[in-house]
Each structure stands twice: as C-alpha cells, then as structure tokens.
Design goal:
The chain is an alpha/beta fold. The protein is built from 20 helices and 8 strands.
Length: about 425
C-alpha cells in the first residue's frame, strides 16, 4: 500500500475535510476597483455582454435559475462574503478549501473581467487576459487573508500570453497568506504546448514558490461541436487533463521534483486506464511494447504511475461511487474529494447526505486521505490548524455510517493495477 496510509488515524476522531474544488468571485461590476482604470472603458463593453448572457440563460432556463437562486440565496452570497462562506463550510463539515475563480456557474455573473477565469484560453488579447487575471488575484489575496488556515486560493496566470509576465505574477503570488496555487488556461490553442521547454521558467517558479499548478474543467474545443452540448460534455474532461501528460511525459517532474500539478473537476474515472497504457509503454517487458522502447527510453525516470500521489494529484470533486471503488487503481494517495461549492453540479447544499452514503464501505484510514489528508499534503496546509477547526465541525466515521474495524487490504493496490502482471512490469517500491 502507499506510504501515505502508514500511521493514519483509524479512530472515530472527526475527519479533516478539505474541499479540493470550490469557487469564489465578485459580482462582475464589483471587480472595477481591482482593475486598472485605463481598461474601464473596455470593461464596460464586456459587462454589456455579461448581462446579455444572463438574460439569455434566464430565458432558456428560467425555472432552474429562479429556483436555484431563491432556495440558496443566503449560501450563494458566500461566493464573495467570507462570513457567509465560513458558516456554509461549517454546515458542510468542511474545514478547508481550495478556491478557484468563477463563483457563479449558472449565469456567469461572478466571472473575472474579460473571462479571465475558467475560459481564459479563449481570450486573444494579452492585455485583457492579464488585466482580468490580476484584478481577480488582487481580490483573491484579500479574500484568502480573511481566514488563511481554511483557504487555499488559486491565482489566475494566463501563461500562454507571456512567460516572463507569468513568472513575475507567480513570484508576486508566492508567500501571500492563503495563496497555494495557480490556474493556467486549460487549452494552449495556437501557442506551444505545455511540454515545450519555453514554459520551463514557469514550472521552475512554481516549484520554488510551492504553488500547485492547476487546470480546471470549463474550456474545450467548442468550435468543433456544432453547438452540440452533449459532445462538449463528453470531451471536456479530456481537455482538462491533457496538460498532465504534457508535463509528465516531457520529464518536467524529474527536472523540477518539487513541481505539483492537479487537474480539477474532470473526474478520476479516466486515470487508471491511461496509467495502464502509460506504464506499459515505459515499463512493459513483453513483445507488445518492446518495439516502442527505443522511442520512449529515457524520457522519464520513473513509471508514470509513480508520479501520481507525489507530483500529481487529482481534484476529483464529488467523486462518484464508482470512482471511489476504483481508488486503488487511480491512486488512493492522490485523489482529493471536493464539494464544488457554490456550483450546482457539486454536493452543496446536500454535502452531508453525500458523505453519509458514499463512504460507508471505505476504511477510515483511506477516507481520511480522500477527504482531506491528500489535499493537506498536496498544498502543504497546516494540519494542526485544520484539525482544530474539524474538531468543532467535522463528521466522525460513525457519522458517515462506517465500520471502524474495516481495514485496508495490504495487497489492494497491487491487485487493482493488473497491468504489472499482464505486461511483466517490475513492481516499484511503495
């Protein structure tokens, strides 16, 4: 079993839950004071489009919008009100959180200027990309400072619009209370892909500053879908986790051992199958893969799966029961649960019910990793401070209807990762 399980508390103590995926942001007009005044005119033009977008959403889906905003009126204010936010986290039993931009996923009215959040890759003007990102980052620093032990803010850094500027922004964000990562555009479009050496100063700066690099579900190749949202929904996870393979297979985690990366809100169901194929490519010793060995030899120092739980973590949000069952294949020491608050596709405002049902058949020590300790390790959070918070609001294993005597099978990971036997791959030291 992974070393991360060794010595993990198996008692009925409250869980330290860290949501790996939450969102926050100002109402669009309120970003004005954080934006350079020279851009206020272009900002006003962008605001017109935002309000037109809300009107369109209201027309197409009025019943859902009205119900969502009326029933959850108080909790939704937590997107920008820290006091409301803390009370909402308390009610969910969540001690800490990783905070991304775009607080409103229904009408888009809490988006950073010019769409510099989840849709940053679609911005073509570098001026607007950086202005919107920095406006949000200025606010985020203030917001996280209201309660640094609980907040792990993720700054916006549109790296496709300038490496030097990206490094400067990373250096400015590093060390700020509560700032623990950056989010880069999910897609690089016509720019160099993220495995290209031109981005190396960015990965070096993140490794030095201890900031986790993220891509977050949102952007995809919409132009190819002919307005078919079903195609978009099926493919958007691929675009979100595609940068993982750019970073891993180009050796960035070997070159920068302290670099960490987490794709978020694209599930984890895809991971095990791709690790199987990647491990077989680099470690297989049968005829099926030997013909490729000359092309792959020396690209990376370890098997791809060995980076998962070390350099690579997965913000799987409200992972499904199927994903929880596949935890040994996908990385019980890498998966990070999350609420996606305050987005409707997450667990909030029904987090308690989800927790009480989804983890019943999971040993306590594994549940502690999935619900919080993996995130504590990924983001270097203060476990003592989070434990004190969890002591007042965190659910216990018995609250989650768990059997305290259920233990982890020491061969669980070995058996789940079938490809080591099938492809005669040497089993690594755990």
């Amino acid at each position: 079993m992974p070393k991360a399980l060794q010595g993990v508390d198996q008692s009925n103590a409250p869980y330290v839950i860290v949501s790996s995926d939450t969102h926050a942001g100002l109402f669009v007009e309120d970003y004005r004071e954080y934006l350079e005044s020279a851009l206020h005119g272009e900002f006003d033009e962008w605001l017109v489009g935002r309000h037109e977008h809300r009107a369109m959403v209201e027309e197409l889906n009025a019943d859902f919008v009205n119900e969502w905003e009326s029933v959850n009126e108080v909790g939704l204010r937590g997107a920008f009100d820290p006091d409301v936010r803390d009370k909402t986290l308390d009610a969910d039993g969540v001690a800490g959180e990783v905070i991304f931009a775009d607080g409103d996923a229904v009408t888009g009215m809490e988006a950073p200027p010019f769409g510099a959040g989840l849709q940053a890759g679609m911005i073509t003007d570098p001026r607007l990309a950086w202005a919107g990102a920095r406006a949000h980052n200025r606010w985020l620093i203030e917001f996280c400072a209201t309660n640094p032990p609980r907040r792990a803010g993720v700054g916006l850094v549109p790296i496709t619009h300038g490496v030097a500027e990206a490094v400067k922004e990373i250096q400015d964000l590093g060390g700020k209370p509560g700032i623990k990562g950056i989010m880069i555009p999910t897609m690089w479009h016509d720019n160099a892909s993220y495995g290209h050496e031109s981005y190396d100063p960015i990965w070096a700066a993140c490794a030095e500053a201890g900031l986790v690099v993220h891509t977050h579900s949102g952007e995809a190749d919409r132009d190819s879908y002919n307005e078919n949202m079903a195609q978009y929904m099926l493919e958007v996870p691929f675009w979100t986790h595609r940068p993982l393979w750019q970073l891993l297979l180009s050796g960035k985690f070997d070159k920068y051992p302290n670099l960490r990366y987490a794709p978020v809100e694209c599930g984890s169901w895809w991971l095990g199958d791709l690790l199987f194929k990647a491990d077989a490519m680099f470690g297989g010793r049968n005829w099926k893969v030997k013909k490729m060995s000359a092309s792959t030899h020396g690209l990376i120092e370890r098997l791809p799966s060995e980076y998962v739980g070390d350099n690579v973590f997965i913000g799987a949000s409200t992972m499904s029961k199927v994903e929880i069952r596949r935890r040994y294949t996908n990385g019980v020491d890498a998966l990070m649960w999350g609420t996606d608050y305050p987005h409707p596709e997450g667990s909030w405002p029904h987090t308690v019910e989800r927790l009480e049902t989804d983890f019943q058949q999971v040993p306590v020590e594994e549940t502690r990793l999935l619900l919080g300790l993996n995130a504590v390790r990924c983001y270097n959070l203060n476990l003592d401070e989070l434990t004190a918070i969890a002591g007042d609001i965190g659910p216990t294993p018995t609250d989650l209807n768990q059997d305290l005597d259920l233990r982890t099978d020491p061969n669980a990971v070995r058996e789940a990762r079938f490809w080591f036997d099938d492809y005669n791959i040497e089993w690594p030291e755990q």
